């Protein structure tokens, strides 16, 4: 049997634990352990102080860690925001320069890729704009030249300088030729304007492509005859049907044949070959100077014009 507790009668400042001492079943004495209460309170106060101190230190460290992590998130996000604003302002050389292997890094790399794409598109846009300016400059020149020629012929005829009937007829024929050239140029410009309209639709119908080439050969006979250029057409069928716009097909192949004549030597031949297996194949080959390797990648670009010196001698535009 033992007893413990807090005893007011002993001063209320001690905790006492008592245990009897027995020998052969008889109680011969007792043992008492006494501890001062104020010492325990001091231990409790010290423990509470350590607990509160530990909590404060933990909160401070957590706050520092939170600031570091928040800065690690806010800094790259701020950089990406500034880069996006610069891209929106047309500064396509801007980059985030963020090198991270997490989701934020993936987003930053995506913005950098977007910046590169926008820069390439801007360069292409500037090139197209310059090509468009050059195109219209060429158009102005091409219109000015025939107008000047027609005016000169007209003034000569009006002033009566030329009276010979044969020469007068030649003047009229030259004026007519210049008018046809201007008409073709204006028609090309109108077509180009229509094709740039997003609502432009090519009206397709069954077309015999052999009939198109037969008409083209008759049309180019006058200009090919001047250089004694023969046109040879090879076919393995009496007709070749396809879906398309007759006028647009005629104009496209007319430009190709016109260029073939311009850049071919005299006394040469233009070879046209038509064949059809599963698809219709059209081959047009001349014996001229050809296209340089530098110009080949650009032959399907809008407004592109070769820089060959011979091109400067030809008074026509190449509308791609």
Describe the structure.
The chain has 320 residues and is an alpha+beta fold. Among the domains are: 74 residues, no CATH class; 85 residues, 2-Layer Sandwich (Heat Shock Protein 90), CATH 3.30.565.10. 54% of the residues lie in helices and 17% in strands. It contains 6 helices and 8 strands. It has a 3-stranded antiparallel beta sheet with strand order 1-2-3. A 3-stranded mixed beta sheet has the order 5-7-8, with helices on one face. Strand 2 and strand 3 form a beta hairpin. The longest helix is centred in the middle third of the chain and has 56 residues. The chain is rod-shaped, with a radius of gyration of 48 Å.
CATH homologous superfamily identity of the domain at 204-288: Histidine kinase-like ATPase, C-terminal domain
CATH class of the domain at 204-288: Alpha Beta
Strand order of the largest sheet: 1-2-3
Per DSSP E runs of 2 or more residues, the count of β-strands stands at 8
- The CATH architecture of the domain at 204-288 comes to 2-Layer Sandwich
Catalytic activity: ATP + protein L-histidine = ADP + protein N-phospho-L-histidine
Keywords: ATP-binding, Cell membrane, Coiled coil, Kinase, Membrane, Nucleotide-binding, Phosphoprotein, Transferase, Transmembrane, Transmembrane helix, Two-component regulatory system
Protein name: histidine kinase
Transmembrane segments: 15-35, 47-70
């Amino acid at each position: 049997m033992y007893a413990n507790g807090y005893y007011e009668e002993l001063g209320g400042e001690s905790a006492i634990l008592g245990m009897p001492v027995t020998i052969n079943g008889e109680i011969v004495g007792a043992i008492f352990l006494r501890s001062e209460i104020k010492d325990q309170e001091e231990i409790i106060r010290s423990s509470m102080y350590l607990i509160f101190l530990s909590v404060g230190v933990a909160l401070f460290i957590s706050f520092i860690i939170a600031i570091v992590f928040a800065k690690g998130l806010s800094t790259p996000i701020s950089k990406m925001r500034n880069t996006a604003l610069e891209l929106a302002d047309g500064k396509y050389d801007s980059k985030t320069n963020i090198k991270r292997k997490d989701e934020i890094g993936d987003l930053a790399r995506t913005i950098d890729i977007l910046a590169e794409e926008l820069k390439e598109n801007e360069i292409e846009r500037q090139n197209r704009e310059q090509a468009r300016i050059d195109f219209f400059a060429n158009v102005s020149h091409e219109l000015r030249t025939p107008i000047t020629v027609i005016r000169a012929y007209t003034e000569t005829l009006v002033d009566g300088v030329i009276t010979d009937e044969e020469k007068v007829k030649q003047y009229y024929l030259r004026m007519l030729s210049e008018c046809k050239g201007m008409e073709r140029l204006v028609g090309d410009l109108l077509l180009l304007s229509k094709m740039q309209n997003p609502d432009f639709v090519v009206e397709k119908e069954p077309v015999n492509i052999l009939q198109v080439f037969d008409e083209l050969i008759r049309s180019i006979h006058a200009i090919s005859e001047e250089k004694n250029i023969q046109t040879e057409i090879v076919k393995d069928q009496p007709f070749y049907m396809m879906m398309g716009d007759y006028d647009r097909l005629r104009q496209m192949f007319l430009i190709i044949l016109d260029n073939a004549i311009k850049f071919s030597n005299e006394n040469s031949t233009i070879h046209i070959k038509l064949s059809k297996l599963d698809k219709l194949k059209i081959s047009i080959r001349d014996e001229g100077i050809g296209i340089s390797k530098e110009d080949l990648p650009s032959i399907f670009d809008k407004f592109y014009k070769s820089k060959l010196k011979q091109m400067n001698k030809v008074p026509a535009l190449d509308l791609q």
